[in-house]
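## Example pair
The file below holds two records. Each record gives the amino-acid sequence first, followed by its C-alpha cell line.
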Amino acid sequence: MKRVIIVLIFIVLAVGVALSSLILLKSNEDRGDFERRFIDSPLIGTDTLDLKLNSFYLVGVDTSCIYLGNLTQTRSLFTFYKEAGKTVLNQFNLADQLAAHPLGLKLSALQNSLFIVDQQKPAIWMADLTDIAAAKEYALSHYMEQHTPLSPVSLACTSFNKLNKQTEIIKLDFADKTSKPGNYKLIAQADGYLCSKGFLAYTNNHLVYAYTFRNQFICLDSNLQEFYRGKTIDANEHINFKVVKLESDSSRNFSKSPLYVNKMIALNESYLFINSGIRAKNETAYAFKNSSAIDVYQINDGRYAFSFYIPMYKGERIRTFKVAGSRMAVLAGNYLLTYNLKFN
C-alpha cells in the first residue's frame, strides 16, 4: 500500500512538472529578447463613462472634446465633454443622403471637419462639425482602408494597388481640384496586401504608418515625403507567415496565425505611442497579460524613449486610444476613459 502511494505521489509530481513546463513554454512564446525602460505611470486622473456598448470607436480627440462613432449606428456622431463639472454625451445625425449607405461608414475628425468614408465603395463625404447634416460627397477611384485627416480639407489613406500588387499611402486634397493624388509605396514582404497591414496617424506635419506584423514604422510629412524609417524595440523584422490562396473563392489568407507586433498607435506633438504585442524579457507574463504595454518613441527621429502600462479597466484591455497634447482617450470594453499625461 505504501509503495502504491509513493508511486501515485511520483506520478502527480511528474504531471505537475510537465504542466508547469508547458505553461512556462507557452508564456514565453511571445517573449522577445529585449528590455523595456519603464517609467512611473504618466496617467494622471481618470474620467470614466459607461457607454453601455462596445461598438463605439474613437473618431477624434482635442483638448476639450472627444468624438465617437458607432459601428451599429454608422450615421451618427457622438461628442463627449465636460460642462460645469458634468459629463455630457450628445448624439448628432449625419446627412440624409447617407441613408442609402447604412453599413461600412467610418468617421474621422480634425479641427472643425468631419470625414465620412464609405468602406464598401470608393466614396467620401466631408462636413463641417458645426453642420454635419450638410455633407458633400466626393467620388474616388479606389477603396480606402486606413485613413487619417491631414487638414480640414485633405486626408491620407491606404489603398491596395492591384496593378503593382502593393499597398500605397495616398494623399487626397479636396480643396485643390487640379492636384493629383500623391502616393507612397509600402514595402511588401509577401503579397503586398496582408503583409503590409498597419496603422496610420497624423499630427503636426508628421504622418506615421506602423506595420502590424513587423517591427517597422515610417514617418512622412503631409506631402508624403519621407522623414525617416524607424524600428520598434523588438527584433521582428519579417512577417512570420506566408500568404496562401484559398481554392474555394480565390481569396488570400495567412498560412498560420500571424504574430501581432504592433497592435495600435497614437501620436501627439512630441511622441509616437505604440501598443506592442510582444512581451519583453524584463516583463512578467502576468503584467503583460493584465495591462497594455505602450512603447514611446521620439516623433522627430523615431528613437525609443520609454514605456509604460495602461492597466485593464474592470477586466477589459484597451481596444483603441488617441492622444491630443497631454490628453489621452481610451476605449476599454464599454468604457470611455480619459487620462491626463504627465511625463517627469
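Second record, same layout:
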Amino acid sequence: MNVRKKVFQLNGSIQITRRKFSDGRIVRSNSVRSAQYTRLTAHCVLKYCALPHCALFYYLYAMSRALFERMISSRMLTQKDESGRMSRPIVRVAVIGITVGVMVMILTVAVVTGFQDEIRKKVTGFGSHIQIGPFDTNESMESDSMNRNQPSVELVKQIPGIRHVQVFATKAGIIKSKEQLLGVVLKGVGTDFDWEFFKKNLVKGTVLNFPDTATDRVLISQYMADKMQLDVGKKFNMFFLSGSRTRPRSFRVEGIYNTGLTDGFDDRFVICDIRQVQKLNDWDSSTVAGYEILVDDYSRLDSLTVTVNETIDYELNAMNIRELTPSIFSWLDILDVNAAIIIVLMIFVGMINMVSALLIMIIDRTNMIGVLKALGATNWMVMRIFVRNAGRLILVGVLAGNVLGLGLCYLQKFTGFATLDETSYYVSVVPIEIVWQDILLLNGLTILLCTLTLWLPVLLVTRITPVRAIRFS
C-alpha cells in the first residue's frame, strides 16, 4: 500500500504526522516524545466528540489542556536549540534583577528593623517604657516628689504585659575637674532597679551594690570618663544647687558604661544610690520622683499607657517613652518611610524587568505562537503558557534573592563584619533583626505584583495571526 508521510515538528516536543494512503484516505496523528504527556492525544477527541455535559469530560479536557501548557512552558525553559537565542540574555538579566531586588529589600527591612530596635532598647534602658510621676507641667530635671507607697501602683504591677516596676529620683548637677566642667543629671536608683541594660553596656568595673547605708559609688559613661579624665576607682566632685546655696558631694567611680547614645544620654546620666538624691533634695526615705515601668511587648506600649493611666490615682500621670523623647522616635519613624521607598522602587524595577523580558520572549517566539494557533490553541491558552513560563522565572529570582539576602543577614548577625561610626549612628556594627512576617510579606507582594503585571505584555499574543506568525523570522 502506497503511503505518503509528512511530519511537522512543533518546538521539538510534538510531532504532527499526516499520512495519505493510495485509496485517498488521509489520517492525521500526533505523538509526544515524553511518556508523561501521552494523554494529550485525547485532546481533540475530548473537545469535539465527548458528551458536553459530563463532569468527567470537562475534568479530563481541562487536565489535558493544563498538561499541554505545562509541556510547552517546560520546553521553552529547557530546550538547547537555536530557538529563543535572542530572549535568553534578556531573561537572565530579568531574573538577576529580581534576585538583587529581593535581596536588597530583605537587607533593608532587616537593617531598619534592627536599627530601630537597638536604638529603642538603648533609650528605654535609660528612661524605661513608661514613667509615673506627679501630675504637673514641670519638664526640668528638678522633678517634683511623690510618696513611694502608692496603692494604685501595686495594681499597676498586676496588669498583664507589665514586666517590672522600679522607683527613681533625679538631681541636676555639675562635675568639676581641674580643667573641665560638665553638666549632668544624677539619677538615683534603688534595690529594685533592673541592671540588665547597664550590664550589657558595661565596659569597665561593676554595677552598683547597695549596702545598708548610702554609698558614694556611681556609674559614669565612657564619654564622661574621657572628657573628665576619670577611671574606675577614682574620686570626683559634683556641685548641686539647693535654693540659694551650693552643695558639694564627692563620688567614686564604680563602673563605666558606653551605649553610643552620646547626645542626651551618655553625656548626661550619672547613676547613683537613690538615697544620695534624697539627701540632696532634703527628702525622707519614702519620697521619690516617680516610678519607671518596663513592659514585655513594645508594640503594646500605647495601649498599656492608657491602661496604666486608668489605673493610677488622678493626681498621678503616666507618660511613655515616645512622649518623653518625641524627637528620637520621630526620627526612627522616618526610617520606615525610607524603607518603604526602597521596597517600592525594587518591586517596580522587578516588574519592569519581567515585562521587558516577556515582551522579548513573545517576539522571539512569534513563529511558535502562530503554529500553536494553527493547531487550534486559543489566545487564552497561549497567554497562559507565557505567563506560566515567566512565573517560574519570578520564583527562581525570588528564591535566589532570599538565599542571598538571608545569608548576608545571618552572616552580619553572627560575625558583625559591617561596622559603623558609633558617634554618628549610635551603634558600632550594623544591627540585624529578621522578622519572618515581614520577609513572607515581601516575598508574597513581589510574586503577586510581578505576576499580575505579566498579563499586560501577553495581550500582544491576541494580535498575532497564524499566517503572519509562521512567516515571521
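Notes on the second record: Confidence is low (pLDDT under 50) at residues 1-21, 26-42, 44-52. The radius of gyration is 36 Å.
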